[in-house]
Write a structure and sequence with these properties.
Elements lengths: L4 E3 L4 H10 L3 E4 L5 H6 L7 E4 L9 E3 L3 E5 L4 H6 L1 H6 L1 H8 L4 H6 L2 H7 L6 H8 L2 E4 L3 E3 H4 E3 L2 E2 L7 E7 L3 E8 L6 E9 L5 E6 L7 E2 L1 H9 L24 H18 L2
Parallel strand pairs: 1-3, 2-3
Antiparallel strand pairs: 4-5, 5-10, 6-7, 6-10, 8-9, 11-12, 12-13, 13-14
């Protein structure tokens, strides 16, 4: 690991100021990505600004129509939250199947979406639920936030402060986990909004990261049932193909995981 200067700010404003002073600063959330790449000397930030101890970035707030999860809230806290289980049970389930206990105790929702790993779970939830990402500068719709592999709409030094989710009529999530990393080989989040719209997003399948699945959305809007997806054909165009699965395999997983997600909604 190269030499760096570690900072532990007490507020979002202080964190932003510390970041701006460094020549090549990086924010630290849960640390599951940044710390390993620093240890391998693949990253050499001049300054590491730790967001995990900022109290205003931790917590969950539930209202009648909206669930807000602050950026430094851990996966474990989300999985255990009574408010999340009541408002959007699928989010609690999603958080409970990320990694292992050590990962869930440290990983944060803000860190996950800021990194935008193509096999991460939360991007699918944000896109499917039509969430809004709030930062210290603005609000960004999930549809506009994710820009491709490890790329987001965040500007230099911008800090995610919270994610706001509209409470849906129904939602479900299912994934095929990689047996070693427990990332999503393919995961699908399905949502039926209170207005009757259907949004379906898949992670771990596309070469460009999280993606909408219009064919399944159309099938479920006509008939919200797992059987409605039976006749859907998922194109292999643009899907990942690697040692873990071909594009055709992932196309099938998108369909199967969508059916399991719908079944999970009851």
């Amino acid at each position: 690991m190269y030499q760096t200067t570690y900072h532990r700010p007490a507020s979002v404003d202080e964190a932003a100021a510390m970041f701006a002073k460094g020549s090549e600063s990086k924010y630290l959330a849960g640390g599951h990505t940044l710390i390993p790449v620093m240890k391998q000397r693949l990253a050499s930030p001049s300054d590491v600004v730790d967001l995990g101890r900022i109290k205003e970035l931790v917590g969950i707030e539930a209202a009648a129509d909206t669930l807000t999860i602050k950026a430094a809230t851990t996966y474990f806290a989300i999985a255990q939250s009574a408010d999340v289980k009541k408002s959007i049970p699928a989010l609690a389930h999603l958080a409970s199947v990320i990694g292992d206990p050590a990962v869930r105790y440290r990983g944060t929702i803000g860190g996950s979406i800021a990194n935008n790993d193509p096999a991460a779970d939360f991007p699918a939830a944000l896109v499917s639920l039509g969430a809004t990402v709030k930062t210290n500068k603005r609000a960004i719709s999930a549809d506009d936030f994710f820009k491709g592999l490890f790329t987001t709409a965040l500007g230099d030094g911008e800090i995610i402060t919270a994610v706001s989710f509209p409470v849906p009529a129904k939602a479900g999530y299912a994934k095929m986990r990689h047996p070693a990393s427990r990332f999503a080989l393919t995961g699908v989040f399905v949502t039926k909004t209170r207005s009757g719209d259907v949004r379906v997003a898949a992670t771990g399948a596309s070469q460009n990261g999280v993606m909408r699945v219009p064919a399944i959305e159309a099938a479920l809007k006509a008939n919200w049932s797992a059987s409605a997806i039976d006749s859907v054909k998922i194109s292999t165009d643009g899907l990942l193909a690697d040692i873990h699965g071909s594009a055709a395999y992932r196309a099938n997983l998108v369909k199967v995981m969508a059916q399991r997600a719908v079944t999970a909604t009851g």
